[in-house]
Amino acid sequence: MASEELSTILPRVVIVSRRCVRKNKFVDFVGEYHLDLIVRYGAVPVIVPRVAGVHLLLDSFEPIHGVLLCEGEDIDPSHYDDRDVNFGLSAADIDEVRLAHASDTAVDPEKDNIELSLARLCLSRSIPFLGICRGSQILNVACGGTLYRDVGKQIRQSSVKHVDYENYDGHRHAVKIVDGTPLKIWFEEEEIMVNSYHHQGVKRLAGRFSAMAFSPDGLVEGFYDPANFEPSEGRFLMGLQFHPERMRMSGSDEFDYPGCPRAYQEFVRAVIAYQKKVNGELNPEAAQTLKLDLEMEKKRSVIVRSFSIAKDLYDRHDSPMSRQSDLEAGAEFLESNTALSWQQEKRLKQMGATVRNSSSYLKRLKKNEEREAMARFVMGKMSAMQLSELLSFYRMMGQVCSDLMEKKLRPC
Known about the structure:
The protein has 13 helices and 13 strands.
């Protein structure tokens, strides 16, 4: 199968890049572990660059069949509600946090806007969503939850080391898994050792979510929406504070646990099912809509050809005569859809054109109303660019119709 065909068949997972400085220039990147797992299980990663204004252009990345959000800087505290703007931290505490976590405490407003917009898009359309590390925090904030501005400072009894700057890949800490959750099914363990790299975390978990795992200090390490979780049906809404994609044995790509890649595997499974659902394979109504779209496109092509032949005949009087059937589609379209100008209508009346059969006329009106309703239904699913192209097409056809009508009505 050609690569072009695969690109139209495989579902698309949107991932937002992270910005860093390299050679005195900003560079956008996404961790390859994430990309590799998405591709491995049968989807295509589509990277959304962290660039100013991209949050207003997300329609350009459609179709979106899934969203994976991963690491990044701290989320701007203004996005989550807390009466104490400093979260109970003194100015000295905040300075200490910034010094200890210099690479993560600088907020990135553009990345916040892009990722929150994508999270809300997923929530509004039930698009599968997987959040890893910062991505889980984005999901919680988008649903009304709050965050600890610094876990080490605000969970006073915490003895858990959630980040080790000297041993990023090798660092592990324990988490306990809640029974009856997807994590328990995937890992089949009461407790696992996870890799993490964060200094913030979920403070108040949004009401729609259920916790799946906790670290010994009580911090939520994983959560999901039980009411919106059935991968086989295209439903997946989950956040993991730890990094299953990085939990690999030293010097090897082998995972610490067989359950580590399952979050990605089940996420892509949901993405594939969601794509089938929106394409109509799981939804008869959507299938009917797609069928109607194809039929409308076929009819449009026939009408375009008919008008093209008619215009060619009009412009070039020496053109060979085409078959009558080639012109019938355009004639039928004009008969049922052309609205005459006041001048054209007046000239037709002067020539004796009248409505001779009122019942037939009423039937035609009803049929036109049905066609208009169908057109509105189909066009309502088109993008702004497609509508613009369609409008340009009909303006051109309108001019052709007007020219031909004037020629036909011109006195000999």
